[in-house]
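Quarterly update from the structural biology core.
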Amino acid sequence: MLTRLQVKGFKNLRDVDVKFGPFTCIAGPNGVGKSNLFDAILFLSDLSSMPIVKAAGRARGTNGRASDFSSLFARDRNQTNDLIEFIVEMIVPGEVVDDFDRLAKPVATFLEYTLTLRLSKENGDSFARDPIYIEKEALRAQSSSQADKLLDFPQRKQIPKRFIFGPGKRTTPFIATALEPEPVLLLYGEHGLGGRPAKVPARKSPQTVLSGVNSVSHPTALAVRREMQSWRLLQLEPTALRKPDEFASESQISAIGEHLPNTLVRVGKNALVTSRLVELIPGVTSVEVDSDEVRQQRTVVVTMQGNQHYSASSLSDGTLRFLALSVLATDPKATGLVCMEEPENGIHPLRIPEMLNLVRSLSDADFDAEDWSDRGAIRQVIINTHSPLVVAELPDDELLMAETLRLKGATFVNFKPLNRTWRASVSSPAVSGTITRGELRAYLAGPPRPETPISKVRHVRDHLTGDLFEAN
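Predicted structure, tokenized:
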């Protein structure tokens, strides 16, 4: 679970400090920079799995070209800053499986990971080879006793102690950076593996040290890597959702919605999936999977009132999307952090409360203490929206409002919570106050309607003026 993210110098995240709970909504108008927070999270996730150049090429706005990597760095007037700093606090799973299918237990589960990247100023072949390099990388444990002080979200009191433990007597970091005289990345051993740490020259390393950990010999660093790898942007595509599954295919819904039939078969909670789907689409009586033994394929089938059967290929985009979310909500393996952009798209305004409840059910925001008995990891959801209808349905402490500020001739984004919520207690110079009542009222009311010139054409809105009892 991502509990805190501090970012300096990434796109228009000039100096951001955000705390997260199981469910968070980032609201604000289009173009303010809400998606840049998602981009930072996904960039960190990619950096835990692949070389820096590849991760930068996958980031939105770079178009895969090294010459555009400078767009990831914040700008002041006409000058590009050359440093990006990430400081991440997280809770990782208490068990981890390495690349060789071996199980191990980390030394600690509440950790802080720091990564600083620098933009190369060199030109020519050197720039093409290493346009971004590592300035600093570090991983250290936060003690379980510190968790009560550093974790602010209300649900923290219900999380079992088996989720947050360690590091015991250990004071050595798991990853550190030394200057001798150039920066050197140090990877320390765990579970009694003493001796000298492994050393990697920071500026010559094509990837982070964390991304190279794949063995139970370093279980804590591996648990952090697995946690960051689980951070994903859920962008369900109708084409992927309609595809049948081969019997031997994956049985986990992908970030774009592939493998829906196999996942439903594995989860096996068709009645619960149906009940969740009915809340958004009245008339649904069942959700099943049709298995074609000859072709070795599976297809999702939805039955409506009147015994009308519809395969995935004939379902609407919205129905498929709701179905996938319903399956994910009931899947015990669907853990980690899910980011969703504008989940209200394609939803009738009257169905937004039901939609929001479904999206919230992908997280552990409403879990009671007994619900943790079969949970192996914490589920978390972050959404962004520009819809006042979504904001109006949120509990107070789940809202962060994004706003644009200007400094040194450049614009950057700031995130403000509502007053008297746990998020308002974050102490950081990056946080500029809380949402005022006037700001909230203006946002919920929507933009003022411009005056229209007098016209002979009668508009629908004209029926809302005058006497309500007057005949139309």
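Residues 76 and 286 are 56 Å apart (CA to CA).
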